[in-house]
Design brief:
Elements (H helix, E strand, L loop, with lengths): L1 H40 L6 H8 L25 E2 L2 E2 L38 H9 L12 E3 L2 H6 L1 E3 L7 H5 L4 E9 L5 E8 L2 H11 L3 E2 L2 E3 L2 E13 L4
Parallel strand pairs: 3-9
Antiparallel strand pairs: 1-2, 4-7, 5-6, 5-9, 8-9
Amino acid sequence: MFEDSLIESGNRLKTHRGRMAAISFGLQAILVGVLVLIPLLITEALPKQQLTTFLVAPPPPPPPPPPAAPVHIVRQVQTDIVNNQLRTPTRIPQKVQMIKEDAAPPMQGVMGGVVGGVPGGSAGGVIGSIVSSTNVKAPTVAAPQRIRVSSGVSTGNLIRKITPQYPSIARTAHISGSVILEAEISKEGDVVNLHVIGGPPLLRQAAIDAVKQWKYRPYLLNGEPVVVDTQVTVIFSLGG
């Protein structure tokens, strides 16, 4: 009885398992078919902007760069002569060339006479005899008749000095200072020409009147007296 029950249950289990397997295979087949058909039935629209981008022709490539200008290589020749003058070389040459000069021609003269000449002739021919017989004097440079000396040199040659009279108006106004004069001293040492360069106006005439009476020792150049241009400064002081 127990065996029958086992046998019967075994047959039922086999039948039930076979049906479940068939149903499972069928469902899987249907699911696979649905998954395959869905992409075919439902199509996804492509984006319009992307399609427009694909349809527009790409821009042309940029033009090639212009060809480079040919480069001219200038070779500088090294020389030791600059502005027709020989400069100091910057490097020691590997080979030094020796310059050979032509030997001087031998003298054709003989003792006691000249070959091809005449007895009693002189060296250099006619021109040589004229030059040797003529005494050439060196040109003399004329000494200048007028020179300019500094005020210190002219003061050293001063032998008579007249003190200027202080103007009463300038003294009352307490005006002092120095009057600078341009003076011309003759060959005899006299003041012959005066020009005012600067100084207080109230003191200028008194300075001119005094300097006109001054006496200088003649200035000698190469032993000869010359006219001298110089400056004279007259100082006016209230205390002195």
